[in-house]
Design brief:
Layout: E1 26-29, E2 36-43, E3 52-61, E4 68-74, E5 77-82, E6 89-100, E7 103-112, E8 115-117, E9 125-127, E10 133-140, E11 145-156
Antiparallel strand pairs: 1-11, 2-10, 3-6, 3-11, 4-5, 4-10, 6-7, 7-8, 7-9
Length: 157
């Protein structure tokens, strides 16, 4: 008899300071085996005064009204954006700008089905030290599905 090969789904982790995109589209939801998935993992690059790290993620939700969230984390601080919209597209931008010698300030916003949505913890600071983790994750409700169409990070000078 033939044995079925196990199904393997890889968690997409990008190398530090990566500007490449993972294999997308990437679907998150109970039917895929993930409710929360880190889709970008890198290290905050050294920013000069006034320079900004920009992280951009976009995708679409399935046809139900269950909650979905995109979370942006730098160091120990997180910023969650609820992107729930039935069959709605989401387009999220997060920014970390060095405004002083040792301080980075984060801001962000998401366009969810044509409506601008502010993150829950917009505008916080994180010290500018070595090896600060930068993460972006998606969370779908038990019956909700979200598909990330793309994600990237870049330094704006």
């Amino acid at each position: 008899s033939r044995r079925a090969k196990p199904s393997v789904r890889l968690t997409v982790i990008l190398p530090p300071n990566s500007t490449s995109r993972p294999a997308l589209p990437l679907t998150i939801g109970l039917t895929c085996g993930w409710l929360t998935l880190t889709i970008l993992s890198s290290t905050l690059p050294t920013l000069g005064l006034g320079q900004t790290l920009h992280v951009h993620a976009w995708g679409v939700n399935d046809s139900n009204a269950n909650a979905r969230t995109v979370t942006f984390s730098v160091g120990g601080s997180t910023d969650a954006v609820v992107v729930t919209a039935t069959s709605g597209k989401f387009d999220c931008n997060f920014y970390v700008t060095q405004q002083a010698a040792a301080v980075n300030v984060e801001t962000g916003s998401c366009n969810v089905a044509g409506t601008m949505v502010a993150p829950t913890n917009n505008s916080w600071t994180v010290s500018n030290t070595a090896a600060i983790a930068v993460l972006v994750s998606g969370t779908a409700a038990t019956a909700g599905i979200m598909t990330f169409g793309g994600i990237y990070e870049e330094v704006l000078r």
